[in-house]
UniProtKB/TrEMBL annotation:
PANTHER family: RBR FAMILY RING FINGER AND IBR DOMAIN-CONTAINING. It comes from Corchorus olitorius. InterPro entries: E3_UB_ligase_RBR, IBR_dom, TRIAD_supradom, Znf_RING, Znf_RING/FYVE/PHD. It is an enzyme of class 2 (transferase). This is RBR-type E3 ubiquitin transferase. Its EC number is 2.3.2.31. Transmembrane segments: none annotated. Residues 6-192, 10-59 form the RING-type domain. Pfam families: IBR (PF01485). Belongs to the RBR family. Ariadne subfamily.
Length: 192
């Protein structure tokens, strides 16, 4: 084997690199040559600095996507896991419109909750912390079906959004006597 067959020039660092450190693409259309060190740094920079999961070939004229599975053998586990997490997150955000997803309202959780059934749920359970949440108003679960329907209505929420109110529920036995008492307070949020 000739000495020139043992090395290639990385298109990122423009250095001669041993052929054993050449990045192996699974994308048959991309013929660009990179060393594994440069690809690791490039992937990390895209994820850490840009929070970008759709990482393209670094050569300006190419722009074909890098295959995460091609990069897996050369990436640290935490970096590969983060890439997969970002890809999943982007896929979920593209698949589910805003009304079909929310984040758990509990500060110690904040997991993404999806409406995979396509119906119009009110009470839902966070898949992470297992606590009940109101899917309509994106807050911790609150009892009272009639009150939920009224207060979770977008128009009512919009009317109350700028007010300094706390909502107290006074529920009576007869449905026609149900009452919602709204009292002024120093709190800056509206909760159902």
């Amino acid at each position: 084997m000739a000495n020139s067959d043992l090395y290639f020039t990385c298109e990122i660092c423009i250095e001669p690199v041993n052929i054993n450190k050449k990045f192996k693409h699974n994308n048959g259309n991309c013929k660009d040559n990179f060393c594994t060190d440069c690809i690791c740094k490039y992937v990390e920079a895209n994820m850490v600095q840009s929070n970008n999961a759709n990482i393209k070939c670094p050569v300006l004229g190419c722009r074909l996507p890098l295959n995460p599975l091609s990069c897996r053998p050369i990436l640290p586990t935490h970096l590969f896991d983060k890439w997969c997490e970002l890809l999943c997150g982007q896929t979920v955000l593209q698949k589910y419109e805003l009304s079909q997803r929310c984040y758990c309202p509990y500060p110690d959780c904040s997991a993404l909750v999806l409406n995979e059934c396509g119906d119009n749920p009110t009470e839902s359970t966070c898949p992470n912390c297992k606590r009940q949440i109101c899917f309509q108003c994106k807050s911790p679960w609150h009892p009272g079906a009639l009150v939920v329907d009224m207060l979770c209505n977008e128009s009512v929420a919009a009317q109350l959004s700028d007010a300094d109110v706390v909502i107290d529920f006074a529920m009576y036995a007869e449905p026609e006597n149900r009452l919602v008492a709204i009292s002024t307070s120093t709190m800056k949020e509206v909760s159902c």
